[in-house]
Amino acid sequence: MQTDLKNKTVLITGASAGIGEACAVSFAQAGAKLILAARRAERLIDLAKSLEEQYSTQSHIMVLDVRNPELVNQALSDLPADFQGIDILVNNAGLVIGVDKAYETPATDVDTMLDTNVKGVLNLIRAVVPGMVSANQGHVINISSIAGHEAYPGGSVYCASKHAVNAITQSLRMDVVETDMRVTAISPGLVDTEFSMVRFKGNQEKADAVYKGLEALMAHDIAEAVLFAATRPPHVQIADMIIFPSSQAAATLVHRAS
Fold first, then answer.
1. Is CB count within 10 Å lower at the N or C end of the chain?
2. Which helix (H) or strand (E) holds 113?
3. Does the predicted model carry a pTM greater than 0.70?
4. Comparing C-alpha atoms, which of 131, 143, 150 is closest to residue 169?
5. Under the phi-then-psi rule, with left for phi > 0, alpha for psi from -120 to 50, and beta for the rest, what region is 37?
6. Which of 68, 171, 175, 45 lies closest to 127 in space, CA to CA?
7. Tell me: the pLDDT tens digits for 31-85?
8. How confident is the model at residue 88 (pLDDT cuts 50, 70, 90)?
9. Which residue out of 6, 158, 206, 211 is catalytically annotated?
10. Is 162 known to be catalytic?
11. Are the CB atoms for 23 and 223 separated by under 8 Å?
12. Residue 146 in contact with residue 222, Cβ under 8 Å?
């Protein structure tokens, strides 16, 4: 029997756009209560309003920078009673900046990627998982990347950060194996979201070129995979799921229509 998500509490980071927003829609359709976390308050407010109108979803907005452990802990401490006891954590907040060689990557970009993609994931795990362990139930779903399985030129720091996410995911699964918790990584290939706009610092032409000549994955494709993992029967744990568009075979191997 599938896991019923009705009235389950789901915390999604990076919920203001892309995969995080799509996950919010999927969990709302499944009847879950949502904690929507991101830095952009206006987009969270609009999303919560839309989900309430369409699905009668209860949402709590958490304006949050996952890089700050004190703010993360405070935000979790301040949760309303109806949203305490988190059942599912979707660690989605993450980013990539630039395509610089390893020895040319600006220190500020290094810090931003590692602080967000690695420390941010750990900050949420440290804040949420103790409650799951105490309750002997819960599910952590970390959004990783094919970059966590393969390295590629111009992606040294991002690839390192996603390799770290995969290592954290695997270790956490071992850490909680004596509980009824589940720990999952979802590792997408090319997904058409704001990701490339951030990578190329707002250069629309360069961002569009990433997806030119192919049908990339969309955010809802990954959200469906997240929902699939979350709704498996309690004895089924999806450890990792690598998802490509049909025209992608590896991180840097893509067939583009001429």
1. C
2. helix 107-114
3. yes
4. 143
5. beta
6. 68
7. 999 999 999 999 999 999 999 999 999 999 999 999 999 999 999 999 999 999 9
8. very high
9. 158
10. yes
11. yes
12. no
Within 8 A by CB and 6+ apart from 160, the residues are 114
Tell me which H or E stretch contains 249: strand 248-250
Instruction: Name the strand (E) or helix (H) holding 50.
Output: helix 41-55
Q: Degrees (nearest 5) of the Cα angle 223, 224, 227? A: 85
d(CA 188, CA 31): 25
49 in active site: no
Specify which residues 142 forms β-bridges with.
91, 185
175 vs 143: CA distance, rounded Å: 19
- Whether the pLDDT of residue 200 is over 80: the answer is no
Q: Which of 33, 119, 162, 211 is catalytic?
A: 162
Give pLDDT, residue 202: 75
In sign, the C-alpha dihedral spanning 16, 21, 27, 30 is positive
Average pLDDT over residues 104-108: 97
